[in-house]
Amino acid sequence: MGSAGSLNRGPIRTLILGCMGAGKTSFMRQMVRCQKKSITNNREYYLYCVQLNLLNVYRELRNVCISLEIQISPELDAAFTEIHEYRHKEKFPQKVIDAISLLRNSQLFDFCRMRQRILQLPQNYNYMIQRADDFMQADYIPSENDIMMSYSQTCGLVRDKVKTQGYDFELLELPGHHLWRAKWSQHFEDPDLVVFVIDLSELCDPAFYNGVLLSSSLICTLFVDFLLVFDIYLKNE
Length: 237
Known about the structure:
Blueprint: E1 12-18, H1 24-36, H2 47-67, H3 74-85, H4 94-104, H5 108-115, H6 125-130, H7 132-135, H8 144-148, E2 158-164, E3 167-173, H9 178-181, E4 193-197, H10 216-236
Parallel strand pairs: 1-3, 1-4
Antiparallel strand pairs: 2-3
């Protein structure tokens, strides 16, 4: 591996690894935000991502209500169906806005919290619900916080460059899907720094993984996968 402490050898090549939903993209955004004071100059490009997060909250809420045996009226059930069947492309149509508003003004969240303290919902659900009215405005443009609080799946390789405290960093974020993990070793040519991101809250709340029950053993397995890949790389040096 290269000498990360050298100031005259070029940017510090940094690999950002981790399982799906661990927070790799959030780490990237924070690094960029620290230097540039802004995640992006084109915040409107994140409109789809933010609104999709809001839709996912209400799609998961239906599953929570069913699992907790919360009674759903025919009107609310129709609203859930409208959101579930909607294929998000651009800004919300009025029928989706009406469905979200109806569910938001209902007491379903309160009923669910009375049955169970930690709900199997995306961890940003409180933020999404509080900001729902703004997200549905025709002229809505995501704020910096909206972008930071939104989950987005890493598609392909994501690169960026930042400079902090006199050091230049070249960031490379790799997807955490198991198909991509098999290709991690292809990017160990000359890394100076490896950041392996783990969201410890996942050990308490598995809802972030679409309701699939995970345990700490899976997190350990993913980390072991990383160590094995890295060990193979070192032996081939």
